[in-house]
Specification:
This protein is mainly α. The protein contains 7 helices and no strands.
Length: about 160
């Protein structure tokens, strides 16, 4: 009988702590910070299922995509969601990563998978460069002009 009383006491104590933490906003804070784990864990689980030989290699495509997207969401959580305006091409890269994993670990090494993953990764990189040039390009041009002007003024002068 005393074991039941002890167990009931622990349950009541834990319920009170959970309610108190919920009212203090601890769970909403943790949910706001760690929600990308809800995307990362299924991606990792798909990889575990494949490498544990419980699922076919095709599960690596969504698994790779989910891992890339979860990492992107973690970065956005840390640095602010306005960084997504620069990092949106990583959604394309997620598909490339999944296809490349399927090419590497799948039973048939189809050339189209490798070509598709490389093309998508290159498109993603090109879009990132274009986005950065569009937003930061004027600063790069200004820095090049300042550097060229300083080099012309302060560099060694040659005599002709």
């Amino acid at each position: 009988m005393s074991n039941n009383k002890y167990s009931a006491g622990i349950i009541l104590l834990l319920a009170g702590v959970v309610i108190l933490l919920g009212k203090l906003g601890v769970f909403s804070f943790l949910g706001a910070i760690f929600w990308p784990l809800l995307v990362l864990i299924p991606g990792l689980l798909l990889h575990v299922l494949y490498f544990g030989r419980l699922a076919p290699a095709i599960v690596l495509v969504p698994g790779g995509m989910l891992i890339v997207y979860a990492l992107l969401f973690i970065v956005c959580n840390l640095f602010g969601w306005d960084s997504l305006k620069y990092l949106w091409p990583l959604f394309i890269f997620g598909v490339a990563a999944g296809l490349y994993e399927y090419y590497l670990f799948g039973s048939s090494r189809q050339r189209i998978l490798l070509t598709s993953s490389i093309a998508l990764a290159a498109a993603s990189a090109a879009f990132i460069v274009l986005v950065l040039l569009w937003s930061w390009g004027i600063y790069a041009i200004a820095a090049v002009l300042i550097g060229a002007g300083a080099w012309m003024m302060l560099g060694k002068r040659r005599r002709w």
